[in-house]
């Protein structure tokens, strides 16, 4: 009982903080992506960069802009990682190998932040700051831009496939939302003990006369955007379990809030952009419901501690920090896998079998609880289209969403979107387990070994970035495979969403009739949650049975 | 072909944007945060280092460690931290944990060994050893132990340093933090600061 109260209490504090912050940030986001005027600094930037910020792009141009920007991002980051030994502040670290640099470049540009390397033992400060931190900002801003474009498209009527301007969305998301947010968060984290300097590791003589390296670096500035942009790439190998990234229970809560802030606020902003606050609230409610269930299950699993080793130890504390305990670790894990963050404050590989399974399901559902800063909203809106379609089939109503008829073309786009991630996860998994180079990476045999591989593919294909760290993934095979999964898992859905946005923007709005399914009522919210669980979740039941479920029952 | 040309044109625009973003987000932003942190909280920003006297310092040469980082404690007269899986143990450049699963035979054996070892060291029943004493943390640099593990070590530390058990218990209480706001995190004991205090008490006792 005395253990349960804090576990519930931390969730209540989180809910209160979010309830206060999300509507405010949501309003700011809606304004950011719809206001006609530009800030003076933005006008200067557009002039300097020779961009016409008011050009209303057709969805194809918008998509090419997003793809072109990401392509350049991958090439530039690859170059930085391969040439880091020539950069200042390299701390003497050499170039990453080709397969590793490819994996990491894709990883950070796709907002995944899968890390096969160990930050403190592989990367200099300039590679971290100018390579990784920059992509933490702009990959997040890219996702937000696409989600905003979809919301805007739904608010338009007969606009001939024009959905806005990618460059304007990118610049605004960065300058008006992410940069000021990260700046405040970084200073706050530094005040609370997170390291922020430019020195390399320094050696101290310990109390009992030994030697220990104390690492340094611009940690707080990277930590802030890593959580706010749902990126998740740690400055150090231990990620947010490292006391220099996450020193206290308070910083832990702040980092959890940062992960959830933008994804939930984007749902709120969506309601404002389409001119019906209730639509945003319904999407937000579905996201919140899924998250609450995941938090409850994960917290129960870790606190109850089923399994051979937790029983032998007296609690599921392997891989967990004393200051966070089981409840603080479980909450972080549910949030990091429900968003597309993938930061960890404890090692998921050592979680109880049901706890690790819940973390996997969070990712496998496509990360819509509440998902990435942008991908969460567009993922949920895709599921909303599936929901009105299925509901329409059941009762014989014409499917429409927010006044947009859902026809054959729309359903094809949505169906391919929904199938993309299962395809990547399951085909990738089958491939990995059928070649020696794939199996070689597994740390353990049997069900847990399968879970390690499944977790990796789920994480990469859904751009999460957390891992069952026992998997040795820094090999050419895994680096290549996971790099491809991340690349396709990001850009295939992104292009499909923009195509869908183009069709919505072009379509005339049909008036609400007696045959229209209301999409803001509790009934719709529960249908939406059901679709997420059944349509998406069911795909993975067989493989989940062989992995975490079998392990739970053993 | 037309799409390819368009992609190329957009990529060039992307290159310009990315270069500007790198200057703003990759250079100016981290430097600004570094400047603010170094002025406002230089001790924290440089790793929360302490001297053997327990005083804050930013100079690694006079520090015995960081209050935020656990360290190997090769002295049976002092409080022992949790097991560490960072490198060969407490390696500041190899943070991380075992990543062994809940059914791992290897981890099960490790837990058994640690339990026997701690029970023998403290002279207690193996069943009395708390979970954090037999499990490695996620970072391998966990600076704290549970109040239960600290309490278990009090008799040994008191005897080794010629101190009253009550006095050592008081030191433990002094270095124990409760849950933040009563709900966040877990109660915990700072091992390095506690050991510094134990050594200070021992030296003060020896001087009497």
Automatic annotation (TrEMBL), chain A:
Subcellular location: Cell membrane
Keyword Ion transport in annotation: yes
Main location: membrane
Any GO CC annotation of this UniProt entry: plasma membrane
Source domain of life: Bacteria
GO molecular function: P-type potassium transmembrane transporter activity; potassium ion binding
Transmembrane segments: 62-81, 177-195, 253-274, 281-301, 377-399, 411-433, 481-502, 523-550
Keyword hit for Cell membrane: yes
A matching Pfam family: KdpA
Membrane topology: Multi-pass membrane protein
Keyword annotations of the record: Cell membrane, Ion transport, Membrane, Potassium, Potassium transport, Transmembrane, Transmembrane helix, Transport
PANTHER family membership: POTASSIUM-TRANSPORTING ATPASE A CHAIN (PTHR30607), POTASSIUM-TRANSPORTING ATPASE POTASSIUM-BINDING SUBUNIT (PTHR30607:SF2)
Oligomeric and partner information: The system is composed of three essential subunits: KdpA, KdpB and KdpC.
Membership in a protein family: Belongs to the KdpA family.
Function: Part of the high-affinity ATP-driven potassium transport (or Kdp) system, which catalyzes the hydrolysis of ATP coupled with the electrogenic transport of potassium into the cytoplasm. This subunit binds the extracellular potassium ions and delivers the ions to the membrane domain of KdpB through an intramembrane tunnel.
Record's protein name: Potassium-transporting ATPase potassium-binding subunit
Annotated source species: Nocardioides zeae
TrEMBL record, chain B:
A family per Pfam: KdpC
Coiled-coil positions: none
GO MF term set: ATP binding; P-type potassium transmembrane transporter activity
Membrane topology label: Single-pass membrane protein
InterPro entries documented for this protein: KdpC (IPR003820)
Gene Ontology CC: one annotated term: plasma membrane
Subcellular locations according to the entry: Cell membrane
Keywords assigned: ATP-binding, Cell membrane, Ion transport, Membrane, Nucleotide-binding, Potassium, Potassium transport, Transmembrane, Transmembrane helix, Transport
Family from the record: Belongs to the KdpC family.
Self-association and partners: The system is composed of three essential subunits: KdpA, KdpB and KdpC.
Entry-linked NCBIfam families: kdpC, PRK00315.1
Known function: Part of the high-affinity ATP-driven potassium transport (or Kdp) system, which catalyzes the hydrolysis of ATP coupled with the electrogenic transport of potassium into the cytoplasm. This subunit acts as a catalytic chaperone that increases the ATP-binding affinity of the ATP-hydrolyzing subunit KdpB by the formation of a transient KdpB/KdpC/ATP ternary complex.
UniProt-recorded name of the protein: Potassium-transporting ATPase KdpC subunit
Species this chain originates from: Nocardioides zeae
Gene encoding the protein: kdpC
């Amino acid at each position: 009982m005395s253990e349960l109260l804090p576990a519930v209490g931390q969730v209540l504090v989180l809910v209160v903080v979010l309830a206060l912050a999300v509507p405010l940030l949501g309003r700011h986001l809606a304004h950011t992506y719809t206001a006609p005027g530009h800030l003076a600094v933005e006008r200067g930037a557009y002039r300097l960069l020779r961009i016409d910020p008011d050009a209303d792009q057709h969805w194809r141009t918008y998509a090419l802009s997003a793809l072109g920007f990401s392509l350049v991002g991958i090439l530039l980051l690859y170059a930085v990682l391969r040439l880091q030994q020539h950069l200042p502040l390299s701390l003497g670290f050499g170039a990453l190998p080709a397969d590793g640099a490819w994996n990491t470049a894709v990883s950070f540009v796709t907002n995944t932040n899968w890390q096969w390397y160990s930050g403190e033992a592989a990367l200099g400060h300039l590679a971290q700051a100018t390579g990784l931190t920059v992509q933490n900002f702009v990959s997040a801003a890219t996702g937000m831009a696409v989600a905003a474009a979809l919301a805007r498209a739904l608010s338009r009527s007969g606009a001939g496939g024009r959905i806005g301007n990618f460059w304007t969305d990118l610049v605004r998301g960065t300058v008006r939302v992410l940069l000021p947010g990260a700046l405040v968060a970084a200073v706050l984290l530094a005040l609370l003990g997170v390291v922020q300097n430019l020195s390399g590791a320094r050696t101290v003589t310990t109390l009992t006369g030994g030697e220990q390296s104390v690492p340094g670096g611009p940690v707080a500035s990277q930590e802030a955007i890593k959580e706010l942009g749902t990126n998740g790439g740690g400055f150090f190998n231990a990620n947010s379990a490292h006391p220099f990234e996450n020193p206290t229970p308070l910083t832990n809560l702040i980092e959890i809030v940062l992960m959830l802030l933008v994804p939930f606020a984007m749902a709120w902003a969506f309601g404002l952009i389409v001119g019906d606050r209730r639509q945003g609230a319904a999407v937000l409610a579905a996201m919140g419901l899924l998250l609450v269930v995941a938090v409850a299950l994960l917290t129960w699993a870790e606190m109850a501690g089923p399994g051979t080793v937790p029983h032998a130890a007296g609690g599921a504390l392997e891989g967990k920090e004393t200051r966070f305990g089981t409840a603080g670790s479980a909450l972080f894990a549910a949030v990091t896998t429900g968003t597309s963050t993938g930061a960890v404050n404890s090692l998921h590989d050592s979680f109880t079998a049901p706890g690790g399974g819940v973390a996997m399901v969070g990712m496998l559902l496509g990360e819509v609880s509440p998902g990435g800063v942008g991908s969460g909203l567009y993922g949920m809106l895709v599921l909303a289209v599936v929901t009105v379609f299925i509901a329409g089939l059941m009762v014989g109503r014409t499917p429409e969403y927010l006044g947009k008829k859902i026809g054959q073309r729309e359903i094809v786009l949505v169906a391919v979107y929904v199938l993309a991630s299962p395809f990547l996860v399951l085909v990738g998994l089958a491939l990995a387990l059928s070649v020696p180079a794939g199996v070689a990476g597994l740390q353990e045999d049997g069900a847990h070994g399968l879970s390690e591989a499944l977790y990796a593919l789920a994480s990469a294909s859904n751009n999460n970035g957390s891992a069952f760290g026992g998997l040795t993934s820094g090999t050419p095979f895994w680096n290549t495979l996971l790099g491809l999964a991340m690349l396709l898992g990001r850009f295939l859905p992104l292009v499909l969403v923009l195509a869908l946005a183009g069709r919505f923007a072009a379509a005339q709005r049909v008036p609400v009739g007696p045959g229209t399914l209301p999409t803001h009522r509790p009934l719709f919210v529960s249908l939406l949650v059901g679709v997420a669980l059944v349509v998406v979740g069911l795909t993975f039941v067989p493989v989940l049975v062989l992995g975490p479920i079998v392990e739970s029952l053993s | 072909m037309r799409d390819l040309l368009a992609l190329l044109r957009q990529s060039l625009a992307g290159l310009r944007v990315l270069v500007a973003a790198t200057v703003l987000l990759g250079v100016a932003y981290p430097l600004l945060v570094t400047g603010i942190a170094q002025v406002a909280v230089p001790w924290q920003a440089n790793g929360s280092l302490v001297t053997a006297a327990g005083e804050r310092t930013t100079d690694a040469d006079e520090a015995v460690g960081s209050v935020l980082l656990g360290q190997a404690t090769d002295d049976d007269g002092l409080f022992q931290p949790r097991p560490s899986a960072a490198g060969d143990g407490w390696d500041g450049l190899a943070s991380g944990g075992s990543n062994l699963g809940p059914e791992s035979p290897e981890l099960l054996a490790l837990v058994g060994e640690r339990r026997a070892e701690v029970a023998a060291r403290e002279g207690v029943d193996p069943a009395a050893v708390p979970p954090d004493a037999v499990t490695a943390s996620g970072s391998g640099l966990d600076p704290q132990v549970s109040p239960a593990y600290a309490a278990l070590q009090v008799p040994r530390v008191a005897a080794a340093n010629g101190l009253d058990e009550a006095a050592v218990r008081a030191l433990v209480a002094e270095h124990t933090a409760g849950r933040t706001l009563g709900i966040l995190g877990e109660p915990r004991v700072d091992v390095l600061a506690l050991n510094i205090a134990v050594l200070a008490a021992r030296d003060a006792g020896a001087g009497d």
